């Protein structure tokens, strides 16, 4: 299976604070993590380091699932310096993955209820369009709804994308939004270099010309918490001169990741591909996306409005 960015099954938190785990289960968990990273982690050197370094004895005496998960995630990050590599206690997801069931169905229902991540899509003062996007939902079934949201902004003088709290998501939504807001049809926007599969180049979605929005200036608000797919969309728009980026350097999470069951209870999200913008052949892993105008995240909105109302780009 090819993943484009991270599967958002982490949107709902599974409470595990009072649950315990036995030493034999820890042994199995460590073995599962090591096997999974060796087989799937796109960064081979780091996969080897993790496999060599993780041993069950380091977690002896830990009986709480919550404490164990936190400790393992701390260690995985220290070894990999990769924000897309993390462990979750998700028995229901692990079971579905083991049985090869579709894990997207419940996610699709949830995303639809949440308006596909669009917390707001309205015209605010001074005829400014404002989109606050919490995450990038899977756009497979979302195009009609998204076009309805963006159609509200067709006659605005400028558009602000607020991605300051955006925690990533699906490449399909990036493709859809790029199709709406970039003037070029089916433009190559991202290239993914997979470890175990053929490389993939993502193109912007083909959009009816009457539904494209390509003339208004766009301002994207970002913070140090803007993550993964949020960073990708920002970089695409910046590199093509389509948006002015305002705020803080972003998180620097630039790998494609997918979920793998490492036991019947735990799921490990593993980076399986490296992403670059084909326009520059450069990604944003570790570096993040540098804004055009650097201000603290809480001042980014005011700065964007100031630039729009003054006519400054």
TrEMBL record:
GO terms for biological process: proteolysis. Pfam families: Peptidase_S41 (PF03572), Peptidase_S41_N (PF11918). It comes from the Bacteria. SMART domains: TSPc. One of its GO terms (molecular function) is serine-type peptidase activity. SUPFAM superfamilies: ClpP/crotonase. InterPro entries: ClpP/crotonase-like_dom_sf, Tail-specific_protease. Residues 90-296 form the Tail specific protease domain. This is S41 family peptidase. The lineage of its organism: Bacteria, Pseudomonadati, Bacteroidota, Saprospiria, Saprospirales.
């Amino acid at each position: 299976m090819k993943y484009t960015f991270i599967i958002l099954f982490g949107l709902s938190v599974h409470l595990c604070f009072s649950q315990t785990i036995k030493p034999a289960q820890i042994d199995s968990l460590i073995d599962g993590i090591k096997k999974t990273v060796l087989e799937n982690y796109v960064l081979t050197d780091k996969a080897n380091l993790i496999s060599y370094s993780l041993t069950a004895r380091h977690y002896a005496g830990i009986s709480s699932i919550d404490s164990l998960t936190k400790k393992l995630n701390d260690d995985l990050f220290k070894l990999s310096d990769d924000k897309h590599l993390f462990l979750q206690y998700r028995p229901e997801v692990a079971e579905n993955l083991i049985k090869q069931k579709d894990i997207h169905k419940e996610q699709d229902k949830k995303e639809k209820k949440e308006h596909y991540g669009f917390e707001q899509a309205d015209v605010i003062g001074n005829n400014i369009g404002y989109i606050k996007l919490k995450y990038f939902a899977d756009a497979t079934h979302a195009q009609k709804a998204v076009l309805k949201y963006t159609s509200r902004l067709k006659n605005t003088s400028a558009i602000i994308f607020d991605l300051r709290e955006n925690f990533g998501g699906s490449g399909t939504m990036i493709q859809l939004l790029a199709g709406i807001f970039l003037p070029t049809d089916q433009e190559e926007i991202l290239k993914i270099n997979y470890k175990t599969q053929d490389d993939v180049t993502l193109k912007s979605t083909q959009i009816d010309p009457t539904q494209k929005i390509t003339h208004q200036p766009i301002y994207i608000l970002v913070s140090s918490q803007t993550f993964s797919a949020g960073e990708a969309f920002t970089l695409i728009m910046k590199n093509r001169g389509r948006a002015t980026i305002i705020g803080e350097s972003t998180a620097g999470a630039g790998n494609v990741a997918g979920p793998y069951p490492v036991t019947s209870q735990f799921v490990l999200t593993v980076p399986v591909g490296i992403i670059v913008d084909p326009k520059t052949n450069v990604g944003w892993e570790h570096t993040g996306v540098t804004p055009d105008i650097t201000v603290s995240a809480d001042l980014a909105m005011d700065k964007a409005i100031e630039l729009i109302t003054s006519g400054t780009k």
